[in-house]
Amino acid sequence: MSVALELNSIAPPKPVFQKMGRALERLTSDQDPESVHSFRTTSRRLQTLLEEILPEHDRNQKKLLKLLDRIRKRAGKVRDIDIQLSALRSLKVPQEPRRKTQLTQALIELRTKHERKLRKLLKDKPVTDVQKRLKRAAKDGKAETARDPLQVARAMLARVERPAGPMTEEVLHQYRIVVKRARYAAEFAPKSVEAGRFIAQLKRLQDAVGNWHDWLTLTQTAAKRIGEVNQSPLVAALHNVTRGKFRHAVSAISASRTIQSSTAPLQPARAKSAPKSAASTSDSSRPTQAPRAATAA
Predict the structure, then answer these.
(1) What pLDDT, on the 0 to 100 scale, is given for residue 10?
(2) CB-based contacts of 280: which residues, under 8 Å, 6+ apart?
């Protein structure tokens, strides 16, 4: 339900436009992991603001979102590699050190390829045009029609249809996207105890579900380049880690008051039987810390 609010019912939106401009400038000059990540998270926040909090768009805002979306998708390919490299480097297992080195090198080469395409796109689409549209959008935003950020965030969570049976990867993937965007929406709420607690809960969920997805992506990449679980002890180790991250993510979703208040109860996940070749891999191979260090962004 859309609710019109007073101007002070949302945090001042102008800073996110300014931050977007700085993130774009930094990405243009350097495509290092931090710059890529900062651009993607900031552009997602801006997208959430314009599509969910201030949904009345003019032509300039629509064009701005389209331009940023194209850059973000290209930057996303670089970011995906950065996350996989971080996860792979954190994996401390004795199995197949040579293959681990080969996989690391292959990911580095793939990142170079995607980084080159990103630089080309940034040259093809003049950054000055995006910056001008950012400044114009910051002035034209109709804050008087803003929606309540916390209501918007809760409505987002309610969109996910939870399965009647055990949690599936498909539904968990939906939560990964929705929880992230719900957090971005909630962060536009004025500071309060309620907002702070709600955002903190969303951050914890984002960490748990995002961490699972990071390892899943790396495991899939390794399987394509090295072989399946029964062909590689390294892939078997990655598979074991990913299964553990899945269980942890499902547990976090199931125990979350934020999720429980917006959807129906969820049955515990049914663990899949581990392949014989993977079962021999010790759980000690699983890192205790998530490789993705930037969920606070």
Answers:
(1) 78
(2) 236
